[in-house]
Specification:
Elements: H1 26-46, H2 59-63, E1 79-84, E2 89-93, H3 105-128, E3 132-138, H4 147-161, H5 164-174, E4 178-188, E5 192-203, H6 208-228, E6 239-242, H7 248-252, H8 263-268, H9 282-290, H10 300-313, E7 320-322, H11 326-329, E8 362-367, H12 369-377, H13 381-388, H14 393-402, E9 406-410, E10 413-418
Parallel strand pairs: 8-10
Antiparallel strand pairs: 1-2, 1-8, 3-5, 3-6, 4-5, 4-7, 9-10
Helix pairs in contact: 1-9, 1-13, 4-6, 9-10
């Protein structure tokens, strides 16, 4: 168990009330609520028993957004809430984060939200120079094999696609600069696991005739790469190449429901995407366990087992990544990419700087560890974030006092000491 874990001791439950009508966008509020609810379900599924080394599996997920970070002197940080006037939202610092974009809906959602902004910036710059960005979907035929095995073969085929003299010729012919790659897996009883990739290829300006040639190249070489690695794909479905009238929202929308389809959306909406037809996303599996997915085609027990298979198979995998040098080409910060596998050591993660990219936030509440424990014990993390997004310290103070937390106002900041 992480040494800074204090959330296990629950406070007496009290009725939760939102004090006033809030101005934060409703969609964001619902996302916060669902992400934290699904994170709790993922904890219940994955953080059980011990590993061969005697550790809790997915220990960092266990404390993510629940346990305060530790301090250098062995203490525990305060949890601080910030209001961002420009967006009408809030964020918190001082908490542990697991950065597991495959198994944690909270960290995944935050990562994809940032990725969407970065992809949109790259598309804007690239198109502004009169160049072409292509959106690609790469798939393979269903084989009802374990997800881990399908991922291994698919990734080997993806490496093959970029290898050899043929691709070097392609790069020179079409001015290929680099690619962003988003990974997705869905499940259905009819087809088993469906592992696939959504990409954006950044190239020089392409004519309609060039696009026809690119489509032929991708289809021929991708299906050949699949065959070399024990997979196959139909000529009709294995590849899809589209010109880039798409936006970042469209690209990320491949990973998210209720969004218009665009390139940056396609890559990053995996976190919020609901399975279409019979395909269930990992988050759909969690919704089934939580009892919130209508007309669920699987039992909760089956969905939990499948989510566990997904989490272990995708553990440490890159869910969205940029090819070497592409981030630098677009002047994006290198640290923001999903470029490094995530291990499961909770101690490594306690000193991260959570304020990066949040410079416009205004401190609205400071919670001592004891006060934060009351919030967690009342399952009020989402509600607190929503009240913080009102930007009104009086609402935050009234909300915490309704939970039994002792508070005082120091200027425009609520100081919460404990029960």
């Amino acid at each position: 168990m992480p040494r800074a874990e204090i959330a296990a001791a629950t406070a007496p439950a009290k009725p939760l009330e939102l004090i006033a009508v809030l101005q934060s966008p409703l969609l964001w509020q619902e996302r916060i609520k669902e992400r934290l609810q699904l994170q709790d379900v993922a904890r219940q599924i994955l953080c059980q028993g011990t590993t061969k080394e005697g550790k809790m599996p997915f220990a960092r997920l266990y404390g993510c957004c629940r346990s305060p970070q530790g301090t250098a002197d062995g203490g525990v940080m305060h949890v601080r809430g910030y209001y961002v006037a420009s967006t009408g939202r809030s964020y918190q610092t001082g908490l542990q984060h697991c950065e597991n974009h495959a198994a944690d809906p909270v960290c995944s959602g935050v990562f994809y939200d940032l990725a969407k902004v970065e992809i949109a910036a790259a598309l804007k710059k690239h198109r502004g120079e009169g160049k072409t960005a292509l959106r690609l979907d790469l798939t393979a035929s269903h084989h009802h094999m374990p997800l881990e095995e399908m991922k291994k073969r698919f990734r080997a085929a993806a490496v093959d696609l970029y290898a050899g003299k043929a691709f070097q010729g392609f790069k020179k012919r079409f001015g290929f600069i680099g690619a962003t790659t988003g990974v997705e897996d869905t499940y259905s009883d009819a087809n088993g696991w469906h592992y696939h990739q959504h990409l954006v290829w950044f190239c020089d300006h392409l004519t309609p005739a060039d696009l026809v040639e690119v489509r032929r190249y991708v289809d021929r070489h991708w299906r050949a790469a699949l065959r070399r690695n024990g997979l196959d794909g139909s000529k009709k479905r294995a590849t899809k190449v589209q010109d880039s009238s798409f936006t970042a929202d469209d690209y990320v929308a491949k990973f998210e429901h209720a969004r218009r389809w665009d390139a940056d959306a396609e890559l990053t909406m995996n976190q919020r995407k609901h399975g279409k037809l019979r395909g269930l996303s990992p988050w759909d599996l969690l919704r089934i366990v939580a009892g919130t997915l209508e007309n669920a085609p699987l039992s909760a027990e089956r969905a939990a087992a499948l989510f566990s298979e997904h989490a272990y198979a995708m553990r440490g995998a890159h869910m969205l990544f940029w090819s070497k040098g592409l981030r630098e080409h677009f002047a994006l910060p290198a640290a923001a990419a999903d470029d490094e596998p995530v291990d499961d050591d909770p101690e490594e993660h306690e000193s991260q700087d959570e304020t990066e990219g949040q410079a416009d936030g205004v401190l609205i509440v400071d919670l001592a560890p004891e006060a934060w424990r009351v919030v967690v014990g009342n399952a009020a993390r989402a509600e607190l974030s929503i009240v913080e997004s009102s930007g009104d310290p009086a609402q935050v103070k009234a909300f915490l006092e309704a939970l039994g937390v002792r508070c005082m106002l120091r200027g425009a900041v609520v100081m919460a000491d404990g029960p």
